[in-house]
Amino acid sequence: MTHNLTRRGFLGVAASASGALALPQTHSGSTPPLPKPIAALPVLSGQARPFTNAERQGRIERAKVLTMAFKMDAIVLANSTASSVYFADMRLNGGERLWALVLPSRTRPFLVCPAFEEGRAREMLDAGPLGKDAEVLTWQEDESPFTTLGKGLSDRGLTNSTIGLDENMKFVFAEGIRAANPHLHIVSATPVTAGCRMIKDAHELECMRLANRATLLVYRAVAQSVHPGMTNADVERLVDAAYRRVGFPGEASLNIDEFTALPHGSRQPQTLREGSILMLDDGCLVEGYSSDITRTFVLGKPASKMLSVFDIVKRAQTAALQTARPGVLAGEVDAAARKVIIDGGYGPGFTYFTHRVGHGIGMEGHEWPYLVRNDMFGFDLLPHLKPGMTFSDEPGVYIKGEFGIRLEDDMVITANGADLLTPQCPSLEDPFGNVA
Fold first, then answer.
1. How far is the C-alpha of 202 from the C-alpha of 379, rounded, in Å?
2. CB 402 within 8 A of CB 409
3. CB of 283 within 8 A of CB of 375?
4. Can you tell me whether residue 185 is helix, strand or coil?
5. Which of 134, 139, 253, 277 could form a disulfide with 145 if both were Cys (CB 3.0 to 4.6 A apart)?
6. pTM, whole model, 2 decimals?
7. Is-contact 356 381, C-beta < 8 A?
8. Which residues contact 274 (CB under 8 A, 6 or more apart)?
9. Nearest Cα to Cα of residue 208 among 408, 422, 357
C-alpha cells in the first residue's frame, strides 16, 4: 500500500543488502541457516538492465516539449532525487545547501552548486546525459545561491521568464529563489516532471515487472517460513534476508490479527499464533523503479467471515482492473471498486474501505496521478488514464478490533485496458498458488 521504503528511506535497506543477514543468533552466537524456501530463492539482480544516457536524453527532450507546451521557459530541480535522477542521473543531496539543475526549454542547461563541490558536480555531469553541455555555476558559503541561479537564467535571456519549480523542492529553496528574483514568474514544474514520469516506456515497465516478480517470490518464501511464536520483527528480518537473496533492496511491513485493520499497521509488537491473519505490504527497487504488493493470508484455517471479506475485496480489485483503460477518469476506477465493497455490506463511502483504490507508482512509491476523485487535489483534478501509466490496485476492508484484508498488485494501462504486473491472488487459503 505504502512503501516502508518510502517511509523509512532506502539508504538503510541498500546498506543492509550487502551486509550480514539480520537473523536471530543462536546461543552459540552463530547465525542460523536460512529457512529452505528463502535459501531456494533465485538471484534475480542479473536480469536488471541499467538505463542509458541516450534514454535520459530522450526524457530531457520530452521535458523541453512539455515545458514549452505549459508556457514555461525552464524547470528547476533542486535537492529532489527522483526527477533529477530520472532526467540526468544525478542525486542532488545537498542538505541545507542548494544544488539546482536548471533545464531551459531552448538554451543551455546549468547546475548551481557550492563552490567546494564543483569537482564532484562536474564528475556527475560528465557521467550523465548532459556531459560537457551543462555549465556549472558556483556560490561561496557566504553568498546567495538564489542570486547565482537568477544570474544563470539572466545570462540565457530569461530575466522575465516563467520558471517551474520541482514540487518536492524544500520551501526554503523555493522561497529563496522567489525572493531573490522578483522579476521571475514562479509556477509548479509538476505538469512537466509528472507529465514525463507518469508514462512508462518498455524499459521502465521491464524493471517494474522484475521488481514485482521479486516481491511476490519473497512473499511466498516468507509465508512458507513463518510459524506460531514468531514476532512481526522476526518476520521482517526474514523479508530482509529474502531480498538480499534475490539481490534487490526491499523490505516489508507485517501486521497481525487486529492490527491488520489498520491500513498502515501499528508499531506495537505482535506475535503470530495458530489461526492468525497476516498482512504483508511493501516492495523493492529495480534500477530505481518500485514494486508495491500486499498479500493477506492466514496461519492455519481462516474463519468464514474472513473468507467472505476476501471474496468481496478480490471482486473489488477485479472491478478496478476491468474499469481502468485509456480515456477513463482516474476517479472512476476508485468508484468501481468502492461500489463492490459497499454493495457487499461494507459501506457507505470510506467507512470500511478507508483509502483510495490506488496510487501512481514508478521511481517513487507514490506519484501522479492517483486513482481517486479529485486526484488528491494535485495539478490536474480530472486526470484521464493513458497507456503506459502504472498504478497500484489495492482495495481493502478494515473491521476495527477484528481484522483487515487488502489485496494489492500493480497494474499498467494498455492500449485497450489494463494488466496486472503479477498474478492476482487466487484465495485466502492459498495466496501464492499461482506464483511460478
1. 26
2. no
3. no
4. strand
5. 139
6. 0.92
7. no
8. 228, 299, 300
9. 422
- Whether 42 contacts 262, CB under 8 Å: no
Pairing outcome for strands 289-290 and 293-298: unpaired
Q: How far apart are CA 153 and CA 109, in angstroms?
A: 10
Residue-wise DSSP of 306-349: HHHHHHHHHHHHHHHHHH--TT-BHHHHHHHHHHHHHHTT--ST
What sign for the dihedral angle of Cα 374, 375, 378, 382? negative
Q: In what order do the strands lie in the sheet with 100-104?
A: 135-139, 110-114, 100-104, 74-78, 162-165, 185-188
**Is residue 356 a contact partner of residue 316, using CB atoms and an 8 Å limit?**
no
The sign of the torsion formed by the CA atoms of 21, 25, 31, 37 equals negative
User: Which of 132, 114, 115 is CA-nearest to residue 123?
Assistant: 132
**For residue 304, how many other CB atoms are within 10 A of its CB?**
7
Contact 272, 226 (CB under 8 A): yes
Best CA proximity match to 370, nearest among 421, 313, 320, 419: 320
Tell me the DSSP string of 200-240: --HHHHHHHHHHHHHHHHHHHHHHTT--TT-BHHHHHHHHH
Determine if residue 375 is left, alpha or beta; phi over 0 gives left, psi from -120 to 50 gives alpha, anything else beta. Answer: left
- Residue spans of the chain under pLDDT 70: 2-30
Residue 416 host element (H or E): none
What is the biggest distance separating any 2 CA atoms in the chain, rounded to whole angstroms? 71
H/E segment holding residue 178: helix 171-180
β-partners of residue 283 are 251
Where do we find the cell 471474496?
311
Beta bridge partners of 384: 329
State the pLDDT at residue 20: 32
Beta bridge partners of 137: 112
Give the pairing of strands 409-413 and 403-406: unpaired
Q: What confidence score (pLDDT) does residue 29 get?
A: 57
According to DSSP, the residues that pair with 250 across neighbouring strands are 284
Report angle CA 309, 264, 388 to the nearest 5 degrees: 85
pLDDT at residue number 1: 74
Identity at 375, one-letter amino acid code: D
